[in-house]
What does this fold into?
Amino acid sequence: MSNVRDILKTKGSAIFSVTLQTTVNDAIKLMAEKNIGALLVIEGDTIAGIFSERDFARHSARRDLRLDGTLVKDVMTSRILFVSPSQTTEECMSLMTTKRIRHLPVIENDQLVGLISIGDVVIKIIEDQKFSIIQLERYVTGEA
Ligand SMILES: NC(=O)c1ccc[n+]([C@@H]2O[C@H](COP(=O)([O-])OP(=O)(O)OC[C@H]3O[C@@H](n4cnc5c(N)ncnc54)[C@H](O)[C@@H]3O)[C@@H](O)[C@H]2O)c1
It folds into this structure.
């Protein structure tokens, strides 16, 4: 069964982030430029939160949002869940679906080593299932 380390091997460990003082306007621009749905919010050595498309959508719905006048710190999600590289893709999918989150930072030995999305997890689970099907077909047809 594959794990978070396997996902990071494919997608790499680059992390796109902003700071607490970044404006929502700049954060949205960065997400569009990188074609991603979330940004980690980092202050010094600390992960302060995560700013996602959903945070933006919720905030926009609540009030008349001024993109250039609002800071990420005012709209981000501060309570973040993490995973470790050894956690399985199934564990991640379970966490993401039960907690209704789409991005998980990856922490190893107190260090941030990556970030995975629900799309990454779905792709890996489908890959694993395809591999299992091929193995089973070979077993059934005696090709193994
Ligand atoms: N069809 C499906 O089964 C399915 C499942 C999940 C998501 N989706 C859709 O696919 C699209 C992409 O979703 P997604 O879950 O991949 O999210 P995403 O668009 O945020 O992520 C795209 C890629 O960028 C990476 N990424 C995102 N934010 C990052 C950051 N801050 N730093 C470094 N890397 C970062 C992710 O790990 C992923 O590899 C969405 O529109 C979503 O609704 C479809």
Notes: Residues 118-141 form the longest helix (24 residues). The longest strand covers residues 46-52. The radius of gyration is 18 Å. The mean pLDDT is 93.
